[in-house]
Amino acid sequence: MALSGMRGLSVFISDIRNCQNKEQERLRVDKELGNIRTRFKNEKGLTPYEKKKYVWKMLYIYMLGYDVDFGHMEAVSLISAPKYPEKQVGYIVTSSLLNENHDFLRLAINTVRNDIIGRNETFQCLALTLVGNIGGREFAESLAPDVQKLLISSSCRPLVRKKAALCLLRLYRKNPDVVNVDGWSDRMAQLLDERDLGVLTSSMSLLVALVANNHEAYWSCLPKCVKALERLARNQDIPQEYTYYGIPSPWLQVKTMRALQYFPTIEDPNTRRSLFEVLQRILMGTDVVKNVNKNNASHAVLFEALALVMHLDAEKEMMSQCVALLGKFIAVREPNIRYLGLENMTRMLMVTDVQDIIKRHQAQIITSLKDPDISIRRRALDLLYGMCDVSNAKDIVEELLQYLSTADFAMREELSLKAAILAEKFAPDLSWYVDVILQLIDKAGDFVSDDIWFRVVQFVTNNEDLQPYAAVKAREYLDKPAIHETMVKVSAYILGEYSHLLARRPGCSPKEIFSIIHEKLPTVSTSTIPILLSTYAKILMHTQPSDPELQNQIWAIFRKYESCIDAEIQQRAVEYFALSSKGAALMDIMAEMPKFPERQSALIKKAEDTEADTAEQSALKLRAQQQTSNALVVTDQRPANGTPPVSELRLVKVPSMSNVDHSSADHGVTQENGTLTVVDPQPPEPSADLLSDLLGPLAIEGPPGSAVQSERNLVPGTEGVPNAEDALAIAPVGEQTNTVQPIGNIAERFQALGLKDSGVLYEDPYIQIGIKAEWRAHQGRLVLFLGNKNTSPLVSVQAVILPPSHLKMELSLVPDTIPPRAQVQCPLEVINLRPSRDVAVLDFSYQFGTHVNVKLRLPAVLNKFLQPVSVSAEEFFPQWRSLSGPPLKLQEVVRGVRPMSLAEMANLFNSFRLIVCPGLDPNANNLVASTTFYSESTRAMLCLIRIETDPADRTQLRMTVASGEPTLTFELKEFIKEQLVSIPTVSRGPAPPPPPPPPPTSAPAALSDPGAMLAGLLH
Amino acid sequence: IHFVLLISRQGKVRLTKWYSPYSQKERAKVIRELSGLILTRGPKLCNFVEWRGLKVVYKRYASLYFCMCINQGDNELEVLEIIHHFVEILDRYFGSVCELDLIFNFHKAYYILDELLIAGELQESSKKTVARLIAAQDSLVEAAKEQASSISNMIAQAAK
User: Fold this and answer.
1) Which of residues 111-170 of A touch B (CB under 8 A)?
2) Which pLDDT band holds residue A707 (cuts at 50, 70, 90)?
3) Which of A209, A288, A471, B96 gives A498 a disulfide partner, CB atoms 3.0 to 4.6 angstroms apart?
4) What whole-number distance in Å separates Cα of residue A441 and Cα of residue A105?
5) Residue of B nearest to A338 (CA)
6) Which of A89, A162, A169 lies at the smallest CB-CB distance from B124?
7) Are A362 and A394 in contact (CB under 8 A)?
8) Tell me: the pLDDT tens digits for A885-924?
9) Do B140 and A122 touch (CB under 8 A)?
């Protein structure tokens, strides 16, 4: 064709187009590849034109999806051609053919660099484009300084500079070190003054990437962003060619608002005010117009403005305006706007205070669940999931269930998982929860994972009130024709355990129950048969007086399976047969299952794992935290120690205990029993499989006598009571303290909280204490989140703060009781009076079966009262000199330092808000840092630190600390020393010793660790 | 933007540009999956498809689907208009562009895309500027050609 001017290429493309089928096409491609290969082999004879033609053909073939494993060299070599046409082809084909991981690219680095630093503008553009599109780490390391130079050069034209900006962005993504933060932030701010909107657009993209990673260094860019946005939004001085359908570069507007979202807040009231004016204008002034493109562009800006408003936490009035706008959007005809309305409403859930307004749109959102577009349905589902709480759980879950019958295949799994999670989290009562899950299994059994029905069984087992109800329901479902196998499993299990509670009802005699379950046996797979056998054995046991006819029937079945090829089935058949012939012995062994230890829902855990970082999930978490109802407390901690998960259900009731268990519903007792009567004849399995979780208890290894025996051996060791049976039967609840093992390492949690402001302070199987802190100058506000993880209340909750003398602390009232699965928040105000490294302690206790008392250090530590400040050389040196010596300036040689590189040390310092000022110290082995300390006595006080390291011996260094106050200098010096010498261990300050770390793993410890147990549930 | 795809209604690939590293095998898989996902969508649905934790913004122009893949949190409409912006520039360059233009001049489409996007980010939002730069490139190529032919003419003349 005329434009391409390459006949050979056009002919080849036509040939490909004329191929009737894939096979012909492949033949034609193979022929061409063969041709190219031979031509390349004797390269000498190739003219530049031919070479160009062949690499284009290669790219075309590659684009069609064929492997092209040769000729890369030729494409790369064109880059070094002296003339523009060849060079251009070389660059573009290389950047389309290769990706950053190709070795061939290395060959080109030198040529590319020469083009970048050369004087030829067009060559610079080509080279920058290639690096910007496929540059990798090596490019970043060798080219970044040159690219930076081009970007800020005043002699370069905009067309080069805008490419340089994006090229630098690429290199920064590959290696963040290439942008020297210190010097660069000023340059970046200057770039935002750029008049050329092309360069400004590219620079803004670069800024977005930079602030996303580290906004601290770029505060100076913030007012410039606001200015740029104002200029665009008011259409002041925008060249015509940069307006798009009458809108001043919508892309630049969007990018600018994106950049602003990475700054945590806007302090300056004037900047804040002008920004809000602009935002208000965008929110109110965007109308729906006929032209699609104009509409899209203006709404792109509008949605970004919404996101920025949400981020800035505007006052409630503006927020409700936003929700109202979104409410309008989710009902419009235009599908894009509907989709985005739902998506942004889900994000809006993160904002406090507006949930109730969002709830008003519930009906409309439910309608969207039936939208013809799956993208929109997905958004609607996510939004419903996120906005669900106790108040609307019934409605929403019922809608989801209803929708499940008609939902398309692609969504059913997600839908049923979400319904199950919501039902569990926000169940107003447990019978409703059972209803929901059974319906779920009924309607979409294929998508209900084992976790879901295991969870129902756990709830039913742990709640006596629920047992008859669940049994009735299970019985009802069995009457339905053709039920799902999972339904067979769950109903057989429940009826095996609890059908005797229904015995007087019509159709519920042991015989009838047995026969209706047995009807299903021919239809189920081998994984279900063991459950059915257990059920039969239980029915038999509960039939008092025994019914010889039923007994013979069941025995016949056991005998039939005695020779089953499946080992699990065979073993059960043999054992149940033997046990049930023993008469009274059966009673004890087949007794009801003990209560399950409290644990986090595997489902919720799974959901968190898969969607950990999506906004909806965080919204859900947020809401779960805010629930004061019986919402499950969500934990996100895995067991810190590598305790192998033990199948905790391998516990067996011994004869002496069965009466205790029947009479007592107390969790504590069960827990005690559970802890003490563990029988683990085998070493703990690395991962107990899902089935053994529920089925295990009945599959006793060996005769029951020996199991009892082994327990007797075990118990005295733990309790020191000679008579095992006594110990088990009478061990009074509440006499022991701290038998509860914390989850995770308390000292490590404390250390971690020294560096961040929210996280878990303490966790054990019953409670989780989370902490969230905000610090401003010498004041702090902490909130303790006390979350009860159980289905029963935690009582006698007491929290006392033991503050050191330098902190004034005030804890709000802590309730005596924490309701089941609820979380309470207790604010704690802190005022720092003077510098000190002493640590405040929280003395916390509660009663749950046993009395638990822990003493926890609170992360109101010295570095929380530091505010980063970065000083220039002109400020630093006079100060440093004026603080001439002790006691204001202290020096010490520290030995035994944890060896780390200077960069690591700088990171460590920065994480403690001691800001490292690079370049101040001429010696590269030294490090200079500064910070401001706040306390009531010192007010704001500048602190300067200098570290001199010895490159030959990283374990020692000389440290000099200076400030205007002797105590501060001393305390800060000691503080830094502690951090350098022993990072993760306990500080040597006068703080009381923390609770002892968990003892070496023992079976009981593992048992009370829900994390470990959880691991058993998860594959 | 992770990548740009142009796919015909029949599922034929017309242009691909990858800003994130994908191997050829992954590239083929992505194209297969997305063709299945996008080409089957009805006309009155929204322009966004959620896919593997990312989002694909697409728009159909005649028989050609323009697709761009972005992150979950990116601004979808902004990208949708980048697509349109690209199409308008192509249209201006080829003079009411059609699929055939792009098939036979796929390399031109690459040049234009490179003036529009780098590193998956918008580089230039002025159509005029892009058109000017492309024209400048074309004239450079032309000039080189003329020069080459005049040299070869001279050689041919001298050889006579």
Assistant:
1) 122, 128-129, 132-134, 136, 159, 162-163, 166-167, 169-170
2) very low
3) A471
4) 55
5) B46
6) A162
7) no
8) 888 888 888 888 888 888 888 888 888 888 888 777 878 8
9) yes
Contact between residue A785 and residue A769 where contact means Cβ atoms under 8 Å apart = yes
Do A378 and B22 make contact, defined as CB atoms within 8 angstroms? no
Residue A728, classed as helix, strand or coil, is helix
Least confident of A434-448, A833-847, A988-1002, B99-113: A988-1002
A299 CB neighbours in chain B (<8 A) are 77
Closest chain A CA to residue B80: A296
What is the average per-residue pLDDT within A638-656? 34
Residue spans per domain, chain A:
450-589, 694-863, 868-981
Amino acid at A407: A
ipTM rounded to 2 decimals: 0.93
A684/A974 Cα distance (integer angstroms):
45
**B59 touching A (Cβ < 8 Å):** no
Q: Give me B80's structure tokens.
A: 């949708």
- pLDDT tens digit sequence for A454-502: 888 888 888 888 888 999 888 889 888 888 888 999 999 998 888 888 8
- In the block, residue with structure tokens 């059915």: A532
Binding-site residue numbers of A are 7-8, 49, 53-57
Average pLDDT over residues B42-47: 89
Specify the pLDDT at position B3. Answer: 94
Which amino acid makes up residue B33?
A: E
Closest in A167, A250, A615 to B81, CB measured: A250
CA–CA min distance B92, chain A (Å):
14
The answer to whether residue A304 neighbours chain B at the CB level (below 8 Å) is yes
Cα separation, A475 vs A495, in Å, equals: 7
Question: Which chain B positions have a beta carbon within 8 Å of A60's beta carbon?
Answer: 106
Query: Which of A84, A99, A205 is nearest residue B21 as measured by Cβ atoms?
Result: A99
Return the pLDDT at A1011. 39
> Within 13 Å and on the Cβ side, how many CA atoms surround B153?
6
- The pLDDT of residue A464 is 83
- Is 3.30.450.60 the CATH classification of the domain at B3-159? yes
Superfamily of domain A694-863: Gamma-adaptin ear (GAE) domain (2.60.40.1230)
User: pLDDT band at A253, cuts 50/70/90?
Assistant: very high
Mutation target for B interface from A7, A99, A123, A210: give the one with most B CBs within 10 A: A99
Task: Please say whether the beta carbons of A718 and A676 come within 8 A.
Answer: yes
Nearest CA in chain B to A47: B148
Give the pLDDT band (50/70/90) at residue A5: low
User: CA quadruple A550, A555, A558, A559: dihedral positive or negative?
Assistant: negative
Query: How much is the pTM?
Result: 0.64
What pLDDT digit, counting tens, does each position of A667-692 carry?
Answer: 333 333 333 333 333 333 333 333 33
Query: Residue A190, exposed/middle/buried by CB under 10 A (0-12, 13-18, 19+)?
Result: middle
Which residues make Cβ contacts (< 8 Å) with residue B152, sequence separation at least 6?
none
CB A129 within 8 A of CB A141: no
Task: Put residue A913 in one of left, alpha, beta given phi > 0 → left and psi -120 to 50 → alpha.
Answer: left
The sign one gets for the Cα dihedral B136, B139, B143, B148 is positive
Give the closest of A17, A83, A303 to B144, CB-based.
A83
Q: Which of A81-85, A432-436, A581-585, A985-989 is least confident?
A: A985-989
Asked if pLDDT for residue A596 goes beyond 80, the answer is no
CATH superfamily, domain A868-981, is: TATA-Binding Protein (3.30.310.10)
Q: Give every CB contact of residue A613 below 8 A, 6+ residues apart in sequence.
A: none
**Which of the two residues, B116 and A357, has the higher pLDDT score?**
B116
Whether B119 sits inside 8 A of A122 (CB atoms) is no
